[in-house]
Write a structure and sequence with these properties.
By secondary structure, this protein is an alpha/beta fold. The protein is built from 9 helices and 8 strands. Helix 4 packs across helix 5.
């Protein structure tokens, strides 16, 4: 059954209308249609707001009193996407963990290249820490998808540099964490990745880096000193060009004495967790996320 599910998902991605390396304005529209075409469950509550003058979307479940906050960063190679496009996965995690999500609408490249997204992420985190009700860092976790996962990792590094309190944990789904594109999987996984090509990713990487060095640790956290970061859960599929971003980021964290769990699921694509309703591997991955976050938010437990 699982192979049938994986094959169906692979076909869906290969036949999809998105051209990741295409004109940003057109592809943003395609990306948004793809990720918002399926209605959210009726009890999902979306509330626009602001954190530190940065637009955010609060995502919660009606009738659930949250006991923590997930500061969420959407994917899209820093060029596509929004808080709304990640609401499907974010609301699923919010439901499972009984937490609220604050999804950050950071500025997008190429109109706003590095460090605009990081500046917005930092402003949002500072504002969240300043809140008296939900600003306890022990009740905050950072979560990111793809570029948002790379952004979450960069934010953790920058927050540590500024001596800001660390959140309880970080969850990184398929992190886009090396914009030098030097990972071996950028070559070895071209035949099995149904979503992206190296050339398309290279176009988007240039959009974000602009005149900056793509090896800057705040652009490519695989090159950062990660010492002092909170426990991390990093998940990826083996059928994705960004696999080595996840593997190398986890290795870097381990070398820097960060508690880190790397979970690579075989034969699934980028962000397979978003298809948990129809993919057994996605369901299993989100159960692991729930257990990890529960442990991170429980005093005396070890994620």
């Amino acid at each position: 059954m699982s192979k049938e599910q994986r094959d169906a998902l692979d076909t869906l991605f290969r036949n999809g209308p998105l051209d990741v390396g295409g004109a940003p304005v057109q592809q943003r529209e395609v990306f948004t249609r793809m990720l918002t075409s399926r209605p959210l469950p009726e009890d999902v509550v979306l509330t626009p707001g602001r954190l530190g003058e940065v637009p955010v979307l609060e995502i919660g479940i009606d009738g659930v009193t949250p006991h923590g906050t997930l500061l969420w960063f959407h994917g899209g190679f820093y060029v596509l996407g929004s808080a709304r496009t990640s609401a499907g996965l974010a609301s699923n995690v919010a439901r499972r963990t009984r937490m609220r999500v604050l999804s950050v609408d950071y500025r997008l490249a190429p109109e706003y290249p590095f460090p605009a997204a990081l500046d917005d992420a930092l402003a949002a985190y500072r504002a969240l820490l300043a809140k008296t009700d939900h600003g306890n860092p022990a009740r905050i976790a950072m979560v990111g998808e793809s570029a948002g996962a790379g952004l979450a990792a960069a934010l953790l590094v920058r927050a540590r540099e500024l001596n800001l309190p660390m959140p309880a944990a970080g969850v990184l789904f398929s992190p886009y964490a090396d914009l030098t594109l030097s990972g071996a999987s950028m070559t070895t996984k071209t035949a099995v990745d149904p979503s992206f090509t190296p050339d398309a990713i290279a176009v988007r990487a240039e959009d974000y880096t602009g005149a900056a060095d793509p090896a800057d640790p705040l652009i490519s956290p695989v090159f950062a000193n990660l010492r002092g970061l909170p426990p991390l859960l990093i998940q990826a599929g083996s059928n994705e060009l960004l696999l080595d971003d996840a593997v190398r980021l986890a290795a870097r964290a381990a070398a820097d004495d960060v508690p880190v769990t790397l979970q690579v699921t075989p034969h699934v694509p980028h962000l397979f967790q978003a298809f948990a309703a129809t993919l057994e591997e996605g369901e299993a991955a989100l159960r692991q996320v729930t257990e990890f976050l529960h442990a991170a938010f429980t005093p005396g437990s070890s994620p």
